[in-house]
Amino acid sequence: MTSANAAGGQRETFTRNSGFIFAAIGSAVGLGNIWRFPGVAYESGGGAFLIPYLVALLTAGIPVLFLDYAVGHRFRGTAPLSFRRIKKPVEALGWFQTGLLFVIGVYYAAVIAWALSYFFFSFNQSWGDDPAGFFTGEYLKVGDPGVSTTIVGGVALPLIVVWLAVLAVLLLGVANGIEKVNIVFIPLLFVGFAGLVIRAITLPGAVDGLNALFTPKWEALKDLDVWIAAYSQIFFSLSIAFGIMIAYASFQRRKANMTSSGLVVAFANSSFEILAGIGVFSALGFLAYQQQVAVSDLEGLTGPILSFVTFPAVISEMPGAAFFGMLFFGSLVIAGFTSLISLMIGVSAGIQEKWGLSRTKAAVGVSVVCGLISVGLFSTTSGLIALDTVDMFANNVGVVSSAILMAIILIWVLRRGDMLRHHLNAVSTFKVGKVWLGLVGVVAPVFLTIMLVQKVWSVID
Ligand code: PHE
Question: Distance of CA 404 to CAs 160, 331, 394, Å?
């Protein structure tokens, strides 16, 4: 279905409200929920982490999500166009966000490609007895300059498959591509992942894993880094202040209950995240039980190593290894892919609107350029190192600056807060009061600025 847009053309829209909600959940639920949240929570106070996490969700996550929605839904464009319609120079902020999407997309695709390979490796646990050596040595060939000769058997082929799939979805567009993919895959992901979690909590040792994750370390609450970790996790996890939720809201029909949808998305995302924490730590408890060690003695509880080294070790020990391996890596692929298409439609629709290109040209251009960079970077030995650096920059410094700028410019410099609030309230059943303005205009930027200063400081130091 389409609706007229200000430029005179027809703007593509989601065909139904559930399409928008599933797409937004698809973007939010991603690698961050499965491989980032459990480790972050564990390292940042365990059960006590839930407090800063909830505070961050309520004071910044949901308010900034509403801000994204208000901008996109009111101004009917991706971030650059919407900001431009608000005031010309602010377009630059939109391109900054688009730049972040591009950069994150490049490495996000690589992780999905790894998960895709591991989906197939699960059939007969190709990683053998040494998942660590297999991942970095045999698979990624870290430290082996001769890698180019083995590209096809390694990372390049799955990466190309991932980028072709992205291209296909972009070519199909919002209603036939993004919406359909999410309506099919998101329910599948929730059901499949729930099955995995149920299996994990019934394994011997699961309770020890859950104790390791949830036993509160209250002294962590005095640590600024723990609060920073909570805010970063919420921003990344909800995909906010990246321009994505602006783009998705701009594809939502004009009559749409925006704030209530936002609450559904935020709730689904956090529930999935906590479910993932339970599943991952139950499985780690099982591994510790098998190895006769304490959970705290296990290594590799976060990031790529958790998914591609520690988890394969767990899977090898499980009855029904092939099935559960495929379920785990299949979930990673789906969760990641539905986020990746949101990243890339943000970039391609932005370019399409700016230069008046056809959807096909923009989609092909963006997929080819991003895909080539991604294949170039990640099928060589520099992949793992690039991942860390880029992740740190884009997710900490990049998105936090973007959120601060957005709040200050929209609320304080241009004073559009009331207008955006009225827009949200005109279309939604869940009304936002002045409190919302206080949260996006004051609480969130103050917290985020403290975070940013502290992050930059720790890098310089
Ligand atoms: N929210 C996604 C996740 O949790 C990641 C993401 C970030 C997706 C930014 C799009 C934009 O993995």
Answer: 36, 33, 14
What DSSP assignment string belongs to 332-370? HHHHHHHHHHHHHHHHHHHHHHHHT--HHHHHHHHHHHH
Cβ(85)–Cβ(75) below 8 Å: yes
Query: Are 209 and 288 in contact, with CB atoms under 8 Å apart?
Result: yes
Beta bridge partners of 2: 12
Cβ contact 264:21 at 8 Å = yes
State which ligand 1 atom lies nearest to the alpha carbon of 335: 12
Q: What is the pTM of this model?
A: 0.93
The pLDDT tens digits of the residues spanning 170-215 come to: 999 999 999 999 999 999 999 999 999 999 999 999 999 999 999 9
Q: Tell me the ipTM for this assembly.
A: 0.96
Residue 28 CA: which ligand 1 atom is closest? Answer: 1
Q: How many residues does the chain have?
A: 461
CATH C-level class of 18-460: mainly alpha
Atom of ligand 1 nearest to the CA of 399: 9
3-state SS assignment for residue 12: strand
For ligand 1, the distance from its centroid to the CA atom of residue 268, given in whole angstroms, is: 14
Q: Is 430 exposed, middle or buried (0-12, 13-18, 19+ CB in 10 A)?
A: middle
Ligand 1: residue of 33, 100, 237 to mutate (most ligand atoms within 8 A of CB) is 237
What residue owns the CA closest to ligand 1's atom 10?
A: 239
The answer to whether residues 214 and 43 touch, using CB atoms and an 8 Å cutoff, is no
Alpha-carbon span 12 to 281, nearest angstrom: 42
3 state SS of 300:
coil
Residue for token pair 């900054």: 96
Residue with tokens 């998305």: 265
The answer to whether 193 touches 279, Cβ cutoff 8 Å, is yes
